[in-house]
Structure formats: C-alpha cells, structure tokens
Amino acid sequence: KAGVTQTPRYLIKTRGQQVTLSCSPISGHRSVSWYQQTPGQGLQFLFEYFSETQRNKGNFPGRFSGRQFSNSRSEMNVSTLELGDSALYLCASSLVATSDTGELFFGEGSRLTVL
Amino acid sequence: GQNIDQPTEMTATEGAIVQINCTYQTSGFNGLFWYQQHAGEAPTFLSYNVLDGLEEKGRFSSFLSRSKGYSYLLLKELQMKDSASYLCAVSLYSGAGSYQLTFGKGTKLSVIP
User: Which B residues 20-39 touch A at CB under 8 Å?
Assistant: First the structure.
C-alpha cells in the first residue's frame, strides 16, 4: 500500500512569507504527527492530530499551526517565516493515536529553506 | 522538558557488535522506541520496549530498564548498510489522557571496513 506522502518535497521562501505543507497518511491511519528536524536539535515534536482533533502540541510558537481533514489528510502552516524555520518537516502517520503504540510511519519530508 | 541523551557519533567495524545507549527521565514513561534514519531518508521503526528486558529481532536487539531510565540498541554482525542515525524516542504522559513521543537527537553510526 502507498506510504505517507508529503508535498512539496522542497521549497524556498523568504522571511515574512507563509508556507503550507501537506501530508497524506497511509490509508486507514487516523493519526498524523508533525516533526521539525534540524541538525542541531534533531526531531522536535510539533503537533499530533487524531480524527480531526489536535491531541498534543509541542513547544513551538503560535506561528506554527495545523489541521486534519475528515479523510485524515493533514496540513501544517507556518506564518511570518524566520530564518530559523529552515528545516526538514516530517509527517508521520499511525493507525491509532501515536504514542499509544509508537510505531510511526514517516514520509520523506518537506525541506524548507528560508532566505 | 524531557532530556533524552544518546551519544552523538559512534564508529564500529564491519562484522563487529555495537551498543548505542539512551537515557531518559522516567516520569510519565509509557514506552521506548528505536528508529533508524539513513542520510536523506525518512526514519523507520526498529523496536519498541515497554517492559524491562531484552527484545531481539534478527541482528538488532533493544534493552530497557525502566527503574534506571536506560535503554540500549545492540547491533550485531555489523554491515556497511547499518551506517545511519539511530534515534531513541520516549513516549511520556502529557496530561489529559494523552501521550507524546519525544525523540533524542540521534546517534550517527559509521561502519568502516
């Protein structure tokens, strides 16, 4: 079956702009989590959605937001981009609420560069 | 926040055995996971421990001691393709009946001939 699909794979933005990233989970998976990965900080949790509800949110400013649709697809948005937002954004899906079982299936990520 | 500590880098020889350690704060612990991430690729699930002891899966084994807040990933008969980053992740209770999975910064393993 198809894996987790993230779009776009690469994008370049300038400071102050906003960006929307999309994630299509594995068919049948209801949980979607988002992570930011940078060389210095590793994988940092952004938020988790399950059945269209945000279950958890990490320690990121309000400029980072997300949502999940009825078909389990998810989007995350970053407004007023800063240079430090340059990172690989990874989406992961799970059959049930993420941390109940732990096995996450990751997408290839969206690499964002902010100039 | 949760501190998950693992070595930044390790080097080992092809055919050898390597142990990657991970320590974490024990409050609210709900399980520990190991993921493998090759350069430029997505992380993939390796193992899950929720009870004390050793879980073996082929060449890879993972150990957990909940009282010590300690885990290790053991890789046997190392192959060149095992060169990757190994991520330790801990599930912790975050309140209101939900849990959050927090990752360590990863250990970059280099396997040399």
Answer: 30-31, 33, 35
